[in-house]
């Protein structure tokens, strides 16, 4: 038994699978098992340290060369350190703000150096999807059982009182998680060679898609639609055009659906409410649009470098200074980093996507193409959702984003080096 445990503990994949089970483990440790608060709060940090040790060993023994994105990473880290040390008056808030961003971005390095092959990526994607399926199924069960959504996530005047939120903080977080998982599940379904496998991934796809719909998260719906469009555009541009046409026809038809129709009527209400004058007025006064405007005003105080990390619009600023959430990681970053930091962050993400897309295009004749393409679409969806939500404030979501981005960039590096030699 001891030898088995040591053997498992010495393998990098063991700890990667633990990381992919993050939402379930965190929920069990915080809500079910009688574990001290300190342990339940620090276990993920300990896991990251273990993975970083494996990453350091892999780095020393690897010939894999990181592409040009390393320069952007270095510059972005230097900026973060500079912003942290320039406000010594609020040192604790600055340090906590720095940690809340960069502690999770290092998952990119973990993904880049710990991935061994594209076959490894397939296995890790299956783990991601299975954990996502469990999470989504829990959310679906909440709606079926009539579990009331906490009032903080129900807008005034809304008739919806049961939005799926599972055990991942909120309906919007669950929506973003499902938007990441659904395209990967679709990719695994297309790749499957046996009827049994296809049936499994079809069930997983439909369950996670249903969970996404039941979250009522409009931002996640739109983000998934955009992510899927990108997938189809990479695969076959003509099909992507048909998809846009089908979307236009579908939205038009949705307008005429009575709100009394189960689920479809709810989706209609959630979407078309966005275009009413009442929603715009309420959102401008105390909702998203108003918060985005306030974040923009904060940036105007220090347009180049912002008001400082952990100083506005997120969890750290809410604890330290009592500021409200911006409901947009984009605007939060604009206020805290200023224009220079925001441009660097966007450039970093675009650079990661560029290398990832190149890696996926080289897999077109491979059976691994569709799962990798689905992952790319899921990452696009998560990044897009951050325009309207603080998704990167959720540890496991930002870890997944940078980890899998690192995996795809590792594939690109291997393809480039193989071609070179």
TrEMBL record:
This is Ligase. GO terms for cellular component: membrane. It is a multi-pass membrane protein. It comes from Brevibacillus reuszeri. The keyword Ligase applies. It is found in: Membrane. Its main location: membrane. One of its GO terms (molecular function) is ligase activity. Keywords: Ligase, Membrane, Transmembrane, Transmembrane helix. It comes from the Bacteria. Residues 204-346 form the O-antigen ligase-related domain. Pfam families: Wzy_C (PF04932). The chain crosses the membrane at residues 12-30, 42-60, 72-91, 97-115, 127-147, 174-192, 199-214, 242-258, 337-357, 369-388, 394-413.
